[in-house]
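Input/output pair, single chain:
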Amino acid sequence: MTIYLIDVEHVTHTCPAQPDPHPYDTRRTVLDVIPGGPCRAPVTIRCGTTVTEIPCHRHEPAKRQCGACRVIVRENTITTRPHTNPGVAA
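Output:
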C-alpha cells in the first residue's frame, strides 16, 4: 500500500455572485511517500503470440488491486485562509 502524506491549503474569497467565503484556490503539497513495493498479483495480458505481465493497478479497479498497488492519501493538515490583496486599503 503506497501512502501519500499531504498538506492542503484552501484560499477563500467573496464575490458579488456568492457573498459567503468560498475556496477558489486549493493547493496540495506532498510531504512524504511510503512506497508499497512491487505488485503481488500481476495481470497477464495476451495479444496474439505476445504475453506480457503488468502490475494490477494498471488493469484492475481499486477494489481488486493487491495491497502493494493500492494508494492511500492522508491529509496531515488542512488550512483555510482568506485572500488578501497587497496594496489595497481595507
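The first strand starts at residue 2 and ends at 15. The radius of gyration is 21 Å.
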